[in-house]
Amino acid sequence: MTVQEPTQAEQHRVLSLARHVQELDTDCKVQHFSNLVESASVKPEGPIFPKLKHLYIRGTTDEVKYLPTLLGSTNLQKVEIDASLYTIQASFTGVTPHPELNSIVQTVAEYHPSLRQLLIQNYFWLLPPSVFGPVLPLDCKLISLFTNLGTFSTNLGLTRDMLVQLGNLPTLLKLQCQLVETNKEGARPYKALPDNLFPCLEMWRVVGDGLSPLLFEFLRTCKMTNLLRVELVLKAELVACLDSSSLHTLFTVLGMHISLQVVNLVTSRTKSEAFCGFAYLGTPDKDQLVTDEVIAPLYKCRNLRTLSLPPCPAALNNTSLDEMSNVWPYLEMLIIGTYWSGAINNMTWDSLSTSASRFS
What we know:
By secondary structure, the chain is α/β, with parallel strands linked by helices. 29% of the residues lie in helices and 16% in strands. It has helices spanning 8-18, 30-39, 84-93, 99-111, 160-167, 213-221, 236-239, 244-254, 271-276, 292-295, 318-327, 349-356; strands at residues 23-25, 54-57, 78-82, 117-121, 151-158, 174-179, 203-208, 229-235, 262-268, 306-309, 333-336. Helix 11 runs parallel beside helix 12. The termini are far apart.
């Protein structure tokens, strides 16, 4: 079956409609847009998509050279890149960063250095376990080309060096990523982190190993005076190994950031756990995971509005709740779930009512 070339009237109609498009998924057809412009009898004045705000780049490596056709809009705010192909190639060949992904990011930066949101995602999860959650195959020095970037999001792993590059962005407000440890045993220790990384960061969401030493290092060293929200998505297989000491260490480094308003810990659930409706921290036969001593470091965060933990063994009572109401006067949501009877001891409705009256 042959596909007829569009008539001049059809070309004009498509180009007229393109002037109103605000969101575009290229779907591996970047070259088609370029050919449409080249073959049009009347070339459009200015960019094809002058009102474009969100561009989703999903193409092959051969189409990188056609990207400038789509990057003329002065309204572009968000670019999402499907890095699945490059992630697979880098994972199996060991060649990273991937030159084509570098080329895409560099091209976007050249045309839109003031871009506000950049998302680089891997949508192909059928990888061997040894390469599950691979490192983002990108030279993160290219991120510094974006002079006004407010959001960077990826479901791929970032190394320590990558985090340092992102931490030097003065405008970054939101960061979502996985963390990857790359320093091998016996290697030279890293240089100490500067304390002025992520000066404007407000939200940090870590997926995978939310209790990574890498996370602890950055939280312990960097001031992050504007940090308002931390969300940790813990791998289900690691959650069962969690003990009160690890949780206390986490709350200690979080308590150093007194600006925090939201602390959320959730677990990434397997299919069976999702079917049952829950995933939990620890196990019923363990010692109580959440106690007054474990949670006390968070009391320094006097502006805390939300604290949410997955179901876990807890030993809290009326005194605990009374203390929380005193140190967290703005608290709006407190979730410390449990599936074991007696885990929250001697907490009465009278005490709950009295303490709740002190909350905002």
